[in-house]
Design a protein that fits this description.
5 helices, 440 residues, 2 domains, globular, Porin
């Protein structure tokens, strides 16, 4: 009994080592104490043991909840899981902790989504057109070890169209085409991540330059270093193999982007990204009309302009209205320094208020953009409207979350050709979309 009293007094000053000893001795000590009439000091010790055991159980449950949430976020963003961090105590050898962390880390993660959409196109000189589209995506990542992971994704849509995974509901009920739009190896080296294959887009982007469905192929590096004040420095690079030919010049792109994210400045947080994309388009044999789209072409079908794009993106986020109503402003300016004409500039701005992450959330986005004919490479710019370049566009989007893992969206595009051509007038065109998506 005296040994227990001395142990109890000591435990108040021993920190984590005493907690480990108490947990180890609980099963042996508690029955013996309960068999006799305990003194007040003994009763206090028993109560402390019970309290510690309850606290230990609560911490274990919290760790499980955090691990599950982290796994879901990593799967949704196709980020390889990080090694689990667990404290090492005298009662838990380092080798045992490492083995437990390796066993607990999820090795296979699956994510995906399905979207159904209706669309209406309205113009003054053409009949109204109503259509429907379906999009399905299923992605997996597998963590081989702490350094190497792999990823792949199956998508619906035309495999010859890198800008879209939507399938038009048509063709006498033909079945959908399904193909791989991602298949890559990832190396996790702390702040640096290396990719090879057909990979997720490595750059901070807007739809002005890069469509959200474009997944480049080649090799890339993504670097982000967080600073002690909460800011971060970013540097991303990409060698993009566009079209390879054995008996002709290849088509490639070499791109780099540098960025900086500020620390929180009151209610504001700012970010900036500067990029340069240098295309060498020696071969267009693998391109079709959907790739060439609205850029200027020579009589032999090659591009009239070179594409050497300088791209600057500035963003600001304001949280003064609370976490449910953040305000996000993004501006993008791009210029093609290799353009053969003065139609070489594009710019846009997007204003978003609200979030769309929890049930009954609302989010509203208004965007305005202009892209001159050879401001960007139309093969990889957005396909939200019928024009890849040479447009003036207003876009209004309303998103609502009716149930967990779902999104209901209504989008209105109001656009016109920026410059008239023999085949394009200057009339405004309307496109309306209503979509429902489910993700997992």
């Amino acid at each position: 009994m005296m040994r227990l009293n001395r142990y109890t007094r000591t435990s108040r000053h021993s920190g984590q080592s005493a907690l480990a000893i108490v947990a180890t001795l609980t099963l042996a000590v508690t029955p013996a104490l309960a068999a006799s009439d305990p003194s007040p000091e003994t009763a206090a010790a028993i109560a402390e043991i019970q309290t510690l055991r309850a606290e230990q159980q609560r911490i274990a449950e919290l760790q499980q909840q955090v691990a599950a949430r982290l796994q879901a976020l990593e799967a949704a963003l196709h980020v390889a899981p990080s090694p689990s961090a667990q404290p090492v105590t005298p009662a838990t050898p380092a080798s045992a902790v490492a083995a437990t962390a390796a066993a607990a880390k999820p090795r296979l993660a699956v994510s995906g989504d399905l979207r159904i959409r209706s669309q209406g196109d309205y113009a003054s000189d053409t009949p109204d057109h109503l259509s429907g589209q379906v999009r399905g995506r299923l992605g997996v990542t597998y963590t081989a070890n702490d350094v190497v992971s792999i990823g792949a994704r199956l998508v619906t849509g035309n495999p010859d169209d890198p800008n879209s995974t939507d399938v038009q509901l048509s063709n006498f009920d033909d079945d959908f085409d399904v193909s791989l739009d991602q298949a890559y190896v990832q190396f996790n080296l702390g702040d640096l991540k290396l990719y090879g294959g057909k990979m997720p887009q490595p750059f901070v982007r807007t739809e002005l330059v890069w469509d959200g469905d474009v997944n480049p192929q080649g090799v890339s590096a993504v670097y982000r270093h967080a600073l002690s004040d909460g800011s971060a420095f970013r540097a991303n690079g990409l060698f993009f193999i566009i079209d390879e030919r054995a008996v002709a010049a290849d088509s490639t792109m070499l791109g780099a982007q540098f960025g900086y994210d500020t620390r929180t400045l009151g209610k504001w947080k700012l970010d900036a990204s500067v990029a340069y994309y240098d295309y060498k388009l020696g071969s267009v044999a693998g391109a079709d009309s959907g790739d060439l789209r609205s850029n200027l072409l020579n009589p032999d079908g090659t591009y009239r302009s070179d594409f050497e794009l300088g791209d600057v993106i500035i963003g600001a986020t304001w949280n003064g209205a609370g976490e449910r109503w953040p305000l996000r402003i993004v501006g993008d300016f791009v210029r093609n320094f290799g353009a053969a004409t003065d139609a070489d500039t594009g710019y846009g701005a997007d204003f978003t208020i609200g979030r769309a992450s929890k049930v009954h959330d609302w989010r509203v986005t208004y965007g305005y953009s202009i892209a001159e004919t050879d401001a960007v490479l139309a093969a990889f710019s957005h396909d939200n409207i019928a024009l890849g370049t040479n447009y003036r566009l207003h876009a209004l989007t309303l998103d609502y979350v009716p149930f967990p893992k779902t999104m209901l969206s209504a989008i209105w595009y109001h656009y016109q050709p920026y410059e008239s051509t023999p085949t394009l007038g200057k009339d405004w065109i309307e496109r309306l979309r209503l979509a429902f998506a489910v993700s997992f």
